[in-house]
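Let's study today's protein:

:::
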Amino acid sequence: MPGGSNGAVAEYAVTSASLLLRRLAWASAEIAKGNYAAFRARMVADNLAGLDGLLVGVVGFGTIGIAVARAFRAAGCRICFHDPAPRDTAAAQALGAAAMTLDELLAAADVVTLHVPLLPRPRIARRAARWPA
């Protein structure tokens, strides 16, 4: 739900993506086990990339999705988005964000972040799920 936490959600999304890309939680666990030298050598060999230059796909381009897109853009990312009914095309233009179908976004993006409401399945889908074909 949009509100005072938009900045916190955006910060969380960027931080989480960075932690995963740089394998920082895994590195911490390996160092705690005493595997510093071997793990450091592997990380250096893998030449782990950060966020800069990556294509981030934002699914749901409402108030929160736009805040997240801005945070990723500030981290040097390119932005694409999917939203069946985008309301703020000016924000998309300002960010240089490309609208894509969901399938296009999932195929192209290096990082995908979801900012859509959790809604129950439509009644027809629930009914269909109960009755065998």
Notes: The chain has a mean pLDDT of 87. The chain has seven helices and four strands.
